[in-house]
Each structure stands twice: as C-alpha cells, then as structure tokens.
C-alpha cells in the first residue's frame, strides 16, 4: 500500500468564494476548487461575509470570523467537507 507523504505542506495564498465554489491558490502553484455546499456556513453567508477571511498561521488554514468557519488546507487537499455537510 502506498501512502502520500508531503515533505512540505502547501499553504494558502489567496481565497475566492462564489455562490458555487470555494477556490484556494496554494503556494505550490495549484488552485483547489471545491463546492461551496461542502461548507454550509459559507454557503449561507453573504458575499461580504465570505470576502472577510483571514489566513491562519502561514496559510495552513482559513478563518471567516463573521460566520465562525475554519478550514484547514490539508483538509481541502484530502477532499474533506465540513462535518456539517449533509449528502442528499
């Protein structure tokens, strides 16, 4: 069995939220894009609430103070939605 081992974890440099997706630019040049519905607090937030975010640490996470949402970059890379996300 192979396992993925990252020597240096990529960090967030930029964040863009639309009504449909959360996009994060990483320090290694990649862009991650995930459905905004994975994060119900962001999905229900206004555009101005989504635009008000802070990068945590050196970009290891993202915090939205207006909606009390925290997302780790490693969680996004692993494809993990919020624990509040419910599949249909």
Shape: globular
Terminal CA distance: 32 Å
Spatial arrangement of strands, main beta sheet = 1-2-3
Characterize the biggest β-sheet. 3 strands, antiparallel
Mean pLDDT: 92
Q: Percent of residues in beta strands?
A: 25-35%
**Helix and strand sequence:** EEEHHEEEH
Number of helices: 3
Task: Note poorly predicted spans.
Answer: none
Number of strand segments:
6
Helix content: 10-25%
Cα-atom radius of gyration: 13 Å
The assigned structural class equals alpha+beta
Quickly describe the structure.
The chain has 88 residues and is of the alpha+beta class. The chain has helices at 40-43, 47-51, 73-77; strands at 12-17, 21-26, 31-35, 54-56, 61-64, 69-72. The strands form 2 sheets. Strands 1-2-3 form a 3-stranded antiparallel β-sheet. Strands 4-5-6 form a 3-stranded antiparallel β-sheet.
Characterise this structure:
- By secondary structure, the chain is of the alpha+beta class.
- It has helices at 40-43, 47-51, 73-77; strands at residues 12-17, 21-26, 31-35, 54-56, 61-64, 69-72.
- It has a three-stranded antiparallel β-sheet. The protein has a three-stranded antiparallel β-sheet with strand order 4-5-6.
- A hairpin with a 4-residue loop joins strand 5 and strand 6.
């Amino acid at each position: 069995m192979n396992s993925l081992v990252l020597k240096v974890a990529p960090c967030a440099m930029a964040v863009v939220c639309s009504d449909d997706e959360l996009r994060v630019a990483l320090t290694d040049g990649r862009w991650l894009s995930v459905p905004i519905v994975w994060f119900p607090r962001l999905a229900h937030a206004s555009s101005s609430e989504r635009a008000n975010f802070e990068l945590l640490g050196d970009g290891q996470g993202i915090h939205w103070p207006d909606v009390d949402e925290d997302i780790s970059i490693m969680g996004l890379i692993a494809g993990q939605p919020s624990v509040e996300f419910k599949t249909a």
